[in-house]
Amino acid sequence: MINMFLIYINIKQIESSICRNFNEKYNCSKYKNDSEIIKSFPYIIHINSYLQYSTKTYALSNDNKYIYYMNIAYQIYIPSSIFCFKYLSKLEIRNTSFCYIDKEFQFEINNYSSSIIHLAIYDTIINYLSENIVKLNRLKTLELSNINLMSLPNSIRNLSSLNFLSLPYNKLETLPSTIKNLKYLSNINLKRNEKLSSIESLNGLKSLEILDARHCSIQHLLLHLSDLTNLYMTNNYRTDLYGIKTLGYDNNSKKYFYFDYYFIQLIPLNIFYVKNLYWLNLNYNRLDNLPMTIFNINTLSYLYIPHNNFCHGELKSIAYHFKHTNPNLKLFYLNKFQSLKPCST
Prior knowledge:
By secondary structure, this protein is α/β, with parallel strands linked by helices. The chain has two domains: 23-185, Ribonuclease Inhibitor (Leucine-rich repeat, LRR (right-handed beta-alpha superhelix)), CATH 3.80.10; 204-345, Ribonuclease Inhibitor (Leucine-rich repeat, LRR (right-handed beta-alpha superhelix), Alpha-Beta Horseshoe). The chain is 12% helix and 17% strand. It has helices spanning 2-22, 34-39, 312-325, and strands at residues 46-47, 58-61, 67-73, 90-94, 104-105, 118-122, 128-129, 141-145, 164-166, 187-189, 210-212, 230-232, 255-258, 277-281, 302-304, 330-332. It has a 14-stranded mixed beta sheet with strand order 1-2-3-4-6-8-9-10-11-12-13-14-15-16, with no helix packed on it. Helix 3 links the parallel strand 15 (302-304) and strand 16 (330-332). The chain starts with a helix and ends in a 13-residue tail after the last strand.
């Protein structure tokens, strides 16, 4: 036990020394080419390796020997020389420290601003993004997973090329209102931000097609997302679906809506106006009836309603109505372990 403690102390001392070196101002002019930058790293980076796994540290180069992709995984730290690659377009970092004392990600963008289009950081404590990350105006995908992220800067609106934003397993509580300025943002992943109670700043984001907000604490249904096709809202706190007709009204694609493990007590009549509603999951809610308009949605092909408050007679009536109005519907309404209460007279 004592030996393990001494090893831990030694590792922390090494990390402290490394971080002091990291925070010194770097000088890219001393590197003649990307090969020299690679050699400055304190660990081996395989170039164009056939073992291209996310758990391996490697890089890819083009015919001109410029590094355009790098994956750093399970290393002690990121050396400051990483900011010297001029043609790096995709960077992924996994479980590797940035050595920032204040846990704010300070991204040196002088070289990257014109090249990087994909940035992904996983399992590394950062907490905050520095304002200067928004100068990466060619960035198309930003993935920050399990980094203890607490907030996004308002200036995220300047990521004008962003189309995919993935922020799962963090500590976000809200989103900046400026996020709706991202006119190409079509896919957002907010899964497992358990303190996230409001995403109303996304209301009116016309470009949004896919939203994954499972296992959050969201209390309000989004409104006026005209291109939305896929909505994953499993395990949140909404009690009704008022406003659902404002979702996906400009998009003819099939709609996949997941509202399972909610607290929904009522489905509004205007669900009928959701264009091309194809898949609706209402499993594990508090429903005891369905609106008559739902039986006339002829595009509905999958409906899940087990584990609600329907009585036995009501479920039989629902199945009967769908059999006559939408015979091709795959209706899932009874779990073999679920006991049904009799209907009151």
